[in-house]
Amino acid sequence: MAVRLFEGKDHAAAYLQYRVAPQELVSTHLNKYCTPKPFNLALDVGCGSGQGTTLLAPYFTKVVGTDVSPVQIETAQANKNPPNVSYRQCPAEELPFASGEVNLLSAMTAAHWFDHQRFLKEADRVLKPGGCLALLSYTMDMELEYGDISSTLNDICKEVHPKYKSSCAEIEY
Question: What's the pLDDT at 61?
Answer without folding.
Answer: 95
